[in-house]
Amino acid sequence: MSLFETAAVLVGLAALFGYLNHRYLHAPPTIGLVLIALAASVALLLVESVLHTANVEEAISGVLMRIDFHETLMHGMLSFLLFAGALHVDLSALRRRWRTVSALATLGTLLSTGLVAGGIWIMADLAGHPIPFVWALVFGALISPTDPVAVLGIFESVRVPKTMKATLAGESLFNDGMGVVVFTVLLGIALHDGDPGLLHVGGLFVAEVLGGAALGAAAGYVGYRGVLRIEEPNLELLITLGIVMIGYAAAVRLDVSGPIAMVVAGLFFGNEGMRRAVSQGSRDYLKKFWSLLDNILNSVLFLLIGLEVLVVARSGLGFWWAGLAAIPVALGGRWLSVALARSLLGRWEAFDRGAVSVLTWGGLRGGIAVALALSLPPNDHRPFILGVTYIVVVFSIVVQGLTVTRLVRRAVPDEAR
Question: Could you read off the pLDDT of 351-404 as tens digits, one per residue?
Fold first, then answer.
């Protein structure tokens, strides 16, 4: 299949499954797409197991494997999704929660990585499938960050206090970039079976993060200056596309964090640029375009997450038992990191009642974790990590995503929402 044909199939399936969800299932759009795609994938697997001559599942799996989920998301869709997500975040609300967002995105991610790694390492050993601790750390790094696409998509329709929403949005946007950096460093250590030294790792970490932030600020400022003296919506839209595409490509070439660059660029342009340089008419035009693009890419992404079970089933779903055991491990690591942040920062920033519960359960994992797991090179530990990651992500999107509204109603007082 050509690139156009593959894109046509994905968009067509997203439209069909979206219609079925809207007409019959009535689940939130992203969750509904995952559920229907999962059901279709499982049905194909059952048909294949009963009719051994059937080649439909093999043909679809071949198409999915040619798509390269990691490359498509990490070096294609993610730049647009992060910029679109950051474009709608209130920077003033984010500034008021900067301590909490910073702590959760940095120390919280690192702490959760270590806690989850320890838990999965012990669990795997007890279950008779031991893995080296460095590979347990790799799993901890890819599963600990909350996914901004999943979080922002779910919390668009959930009423939570503004401070809590700003914390969730800010943390999910920034710890995604942090998690990718940590994952890259730990994967390098695991593959080369060595210790590069704390100073080297720290220097690489700071260079990627600060370099990405600086590049994002520069890209956002260039875009702001570009639209400052013009009144042409189509050209202004083209400039924002240039910010995303050139900015992310430059981040890849400069070896800095592309996700962090896109978040900073989106925050700068979405607040300073929209307020000072864009007219009201153009502002509505830009927001509607980026909202539409965000919805289309979200639909395709969550469709792919549901369909990826056909790829994962070929190697990793034999470890479903480990995936189920990893769910409380991942949630426990998340809860401890959030609770610690509240204990340390409660002196400077107020936390709403129920904040720890909502931040823990609402910290969804999504496509980025699956993409990172699929990027692992073939080795003895890849099937285990891939299978466990997929099950944790599906649980997070489906179970946590469907019940987070109920949790908010119970944990957060009505007057606070």
Answer: 778 888 988 998 889 889 999 998 898 888 888 999 899 999 999 999 998 898
Residue 275 burial by Cβ neighbours in a 10 Å radius (0-12, 13-18, 19+) = exposed
Phi, psi of 34 (to 5 degrees): -65, -45
Residues written for the chain: 417
Integer Cα distance of 283 and 281 in angstroms: 5
Token pair of 372 as six digits: 């990172």
Encoding tokens for residue 299? 């639909």
CA 83, CA 352: separation in Å to the nearest integer?
28
Model confidence, pTM: 0.89
Q: Which domains are present in the chain?
A: 68-416 (1.20.1530.20)
CB neighbour class for 25 (10 Å; exposed up to 12, middle 13-18, buried from 19): middle
Query: What confidence tens digit (pLDDT) does each residue in 305-354 have?
Result: 988 887 787 665 667 888 888 999 999 999 999 998 888 887 777 777 88
At residue 141, does pLDDT exceed 60?
yes
Position with higher pLDDT, 151 vs 132: 132
Q: Name the H helices within 255-381.
A: 258-268, 274-276, 280-307, 309-312, 320-345, 355-361, 367-374
Q: Which residues of 373-387 are buried (b: 16+ CB within 10 A; e: fewer)?
A: bbbbeeeebbbbbbb
Sequence-distant (≥ 6) Cβ neighbours of residue 251 within 8 angstroms: 212, 215, 257, 258, 261
Q: In this structure, what are the phi and psi dihedrals at residue 231, rounded to the nearest 5 degrees? A: -130, 65
143 neighbors 396 (Cβ within 8 angstroms) = no
How far apart CA 171 and CA 146 sit, in angstroms, is 8
126-140: string of b/e by CB count within 10 Å (b at 16+)? Answer: eeeeebeebbbbbbb
**CB of 388 closer than 8 Å to CB of 323:** yes
Encoding tokens for residue 318? Answer: 């034999």
Distance CA 301, CA 294 (A): 10
